[in-house]
């Protein structure tokens, strides 16, 4: 058993407590120091007591928060590939015993028996130190990525979504006539960190890419858009921008009304990727015309969650590529750094925030 300073909640009731906690569920002999943990809507939803699917580790009265982390190896234990000082990103989901979990694809767990660090039944990474095993650690290839490698966890979701997109898009010729995606249109709903990571990835594939929200955005966001060749559209005033149709829509809002507004803009063979969740969103109505539209145009709506270890590796490659561009604004996606003791990170959200991060070292 180990004792460490961290931030815990009582799931699914909520609240947050900073203090010393005894950890009984770490597995593995690699000792790690947490450097940064990202804060996302899931952490805030847990603290607010809104996420009924969250639960404490077995027999415990609280769970350490945090699933987006960057750690440093203090003692590599029995690892043959990690050395003291290496940077690593821990995998969030831990396998159950279903067939997908047994092949390392707990992101596609078929019976729900997997656990998620900091969310469902396994202590997370918002703490000074943790232990883990090699199987669940992904080495950061380059120490210079220290300032932004905490974005690996949100980026790995995009890498998996691109894999799913690749499979679904094969049912017809989706590429442009020159075999690339040049001229194809992608719209990403939302202007948070996942929205940017999705939009930057689709733009890299050659898509003409917009991100959109129902209000204007700050200068930092506009500058990042400009650098990565993304258009920003305030759809509350400029919905006409999308009248020529969209080939891929990615939703990070979880808002049914917005999702179906954009769904109706999809071109033939269009694909809508749903990633954002919002259990408190208002309902919307869907008509027979909408169903006709879906059938006649061969549309696909799909949900995608989490990712496998291979996608963490791909995410680190992607982040390295973006981070090494000349005058790269990648670090500007991280708009605020918090101390672990500052619990306002869970209750306050500045409109200019893209990604909030807690600094532990
Ligand atoms: Zn499973």
Descriptive overview:
The protein is an alpha/beta fold and 361 residues long. 24% of the residues lie in helices and 28% in strands. The protein is built from nine helices and 19 strands. Helix 7 links the parallel strand 15 and strand 16. The protein is globular, with a radius of gyration of 20 Å. Bound molecules: zinc ion (ZN). Zinc ion is lined by residues 96, 98, 100-101, 106, 109-111, 113-114. Zinc ion (ZN) binds next to helix 2.
Instruction: State the low-pLDDT regions, or none.
Output: none
Largest sheet: 7 strands, mixed
Give the topology string: H per helix, E per strand. Answer: EEEHEEEEHEEEEHEHEHEHEHEHEHEE
Shape: globular
Give the secondary structure arrangement, pairings included:
Blueprint: E1 2-10, E2 14-23, E3 30-39, H1 41-48, E4 63-64, E5 68-75, E6 87-90, E7 93-94, H2 99-102, E8 115-117, E9 121-122, E10 129-132, E11 137-139, H3 152-168, E12 185-189, H4 193-204, E13 208-213, H5 219-227, E14 231-234, H6 235-238, E15 246-251, H7 256-263, E16 266-274, H8 288-296, E17 300-303, H9 309-323, E18 334-338, E19 355-359
Parallel strand pairs: 8-9, 12-13, 12-15, 13-14, 15-16, 16-17, 18-19
Antiparallel strand pairs: 1-2, 1-4, 3-5, 3-10, 3-19, 5-6, 6-11, 7-8
Helix pairs in contact: 3-4, 3-9
The chain binds zinc ion.
In short:
The protein is an alpha/beta fold and 361 residues long. Helices cover 24% and strands 28% of the residues.
List keywords for this structure.
single chain, 361 residues, alpha/beta, Quinone Oxidoreductase, Chain A, domain 1, Rossmann fold, 2 domains, seven-stranded mixed beta sheet, six-stranded parallel beta sheet, 9 helices, 19 strands, globular, binds zinc ion
């Amino acid at each position: 058993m180990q004792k460490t300073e961290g931030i815990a909640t009582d799931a699914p009731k909520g609240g947050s407590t900073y203090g010393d906690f005894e950890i009984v569920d770490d597995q593995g002999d690699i000792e790690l120091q947490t450097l940064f943990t990202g804060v996302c809507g899931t952490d805030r939803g847990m603290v607010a007591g809104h996420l009924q699917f969250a639960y404490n580790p077995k027999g415990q009265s609280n769970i350490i928060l945090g699933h987006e982390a960057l750690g440093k190896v203090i003692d590599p234990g029995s690892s043959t590939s990690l050395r003291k000082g290496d940077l690593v990103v821990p995998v969030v989901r831990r396998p159950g015993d279903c067939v997908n979990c047994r092949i390392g694809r707990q992101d596609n767990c078929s019976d729900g028996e997997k656990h998620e660090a900091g969310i469902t039944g396994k202590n997370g990474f918002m703490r000074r130190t943790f232990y883990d095993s090699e199987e669940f650690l992904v080495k950061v290839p380059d120490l210079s990525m220290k300032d932004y490698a905490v974005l690996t966890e949100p980026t790995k979701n995009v890498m998996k979504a691109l894999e799913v997109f690749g499979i679904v898009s094969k049912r017809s010729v989706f590429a442009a006539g020159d075999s690339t995606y040049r001229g194809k249109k992608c719209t990403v709903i939302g202007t948070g960190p996942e929205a940017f990571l999705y939009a930057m990835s689709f733009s890299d594939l050659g898509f003409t890419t917009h991100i959109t929200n129902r209000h204007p955005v700050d200068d930092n966001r506009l500058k990042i858009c400009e650098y990565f060749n993304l258009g920003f559209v305030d759809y509350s005033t400029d919905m006409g921008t999308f009248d020529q149709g969209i080939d891929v829509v990615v939703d990070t809002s979880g808002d049914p009304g917005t999702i179906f507004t954009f769904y109706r803009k999809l071109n033939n063979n269009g694909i809508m990727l749903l990633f954002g969740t919002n259990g408190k969103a208002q309902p919307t109505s869907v008509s027979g015309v909408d169903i006709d539209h879906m059938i006649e145009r061969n549309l696909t709506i799909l949900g995608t969650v989490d990712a496998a270890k291979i996608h963490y590796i791909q995410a680190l490659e992607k982040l390295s590529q973006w981070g090494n561009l000349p005058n790269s604004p990648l670090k500007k996606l991280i708009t605020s750094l918090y101390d672990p003791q500052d619990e306002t990170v869970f209750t306050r959200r500045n409109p200019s925030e893209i990604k909030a991060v807690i600094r532990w070292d």
